[in-house]
Amino acid sequence: MVLTTLSVIKADIGSYVGHVMVHPKLIEVATEELSKAINDKIIDDFRVMSCGDDLELIMTHGRGTDDKTIHGLAWEAFSKAVRHAKELKLYAAGQDLLADSFTGTVKGLGPGVAEMEFEERASDPVVIFMADKTGPGAWNYPLFKIFADPFNTIGFVIDSRLSDGFAFTVMDMVKGARIELKCPQEIYSLLLFIGTTGRYCIESVHRNSDGETAAVSSTQRLNLIAGRYVGKDDPVCIVRCQSGFPAVGEVLEPFSFPHLVPGWMRGSHNGPLMPVSLKDAKPTRFDGPPRVVAPGFQIANRKMVGPLDLFDDLAFDSARAKALELADLMRLHGPFEPHRLQLEEMEYTSLPELEKRLANRWKPI
């Protein structure tokens, strides 16, 4: 059996102007580094892309997930790009590289990672979702809709290949634990956890019938790794489509509703996740609102055919209009909840430092 690995590794290593977008020089440097890896037969194909201020490395290879060589390649590409980011005095240069050296995996060092290994089908379409100004819990709503809700995915009702449902692996990002819940039979238990998006996130989805991987997402929380506010996590997610999985249209459908996600300005506000084309993935208003892009690929013999910019479609104009309306509504709340995150979430921002300054002024009643 010949297996293909699809690895998506991202990092915010410096942006211009402010937190808006990746500078073209960083994309150029990363492209040069991954091109060398093609020549050295480390990877089979790659794309260097961006969403907002996040540099995204998309690679195909046959080395499996969590491979030291692949992660080392990504680390080297990011590290070289950081040097140019510092020369250009880009904002927050090196922000997501939380260590001085590579330790065998980029997990725990700052970058976000989503990887899956699979045997290619006769046709293997995938959608890679990339978000900016939000955290990994942002995928909970759409992944639930895609893989558990028949009102979204009609395939559960009319396609026998989907009728057995899917199992969700949910991570507790605070305790560092995970649980697997099979749907539809455990759908209510799943919702019990994933509705708390700041703590629980869907790590992966597998088909109940044979355990085949359907989706994976990055689950790294920078604040919990670094112990201080260093920016939002800006997650990535890979979803396989068609022929035993939800169709591409069913995978995109949840984003017709711009659901509220934590992040936005200083990672401290709730805002609508707005589906945009790749060219519009440059959040400016209040450093937002949060954005999501959806490049689609056909995987063929470890090569990527694409990308097709799936949100570059007027069918999502209504979602974008709703997102902008919601952005107006939330911004009018200013520093008040529900625009500002709840106190528990603010504990991972710079708020505790400000609280310390006033701590001795509180008097017991």
Short description:
It contains ten helices and 16 strands.
Describe the structure.
There is one protein chain. The protein has helices at 24-39, 68-87, 140-148, 155-158, 187-194, 222-226, 248-252, 317-331, 343-346, 351-358, and strands spanning 4-11, 45-51, 54-61, 112-118, 124-132, 166-172, 177-183, 200-207, 213-217, 236-240, 260-263, 269-272, 274-275, 291-293, 295-300, 303-309. It is globular and about 70 Å long. The protein folds into 2 domains: 1-119, Alpha-Beta Plaits (2-Layer Sandwich), CATH 3.30.70; 123-347, no CATH class. Helices cover 26% and strands 27% of the residues. The chain is of the alpha+beta class and 365 residues long. The mean pLDDT is 94. Strands 5, 6, 7, 8, 9, 10, 13, 14, 15 and 16 form a 10-stranded mixed sheet that branches. Helix 1 runs antiparallel to helix 2.
- Give the tally of structural domains: 2
Task: Give the N-to-C terminal Cα separation.
Answer: 71 Å
Shape: globular
| Quaternary structure type | single chain
How many alpha or pi helices? 10
Task: State the helical fraction.
Answer: 25-40%
Strand content: 25-35%
Gyration radius, to the nearest Å? 20 Å
Core attributes:
four-stranded antiparallel sheet, globular, 10 helices, ten-stranded mixed sheet, alpha+beta, 365 residues, Alpha-Beta Plaits
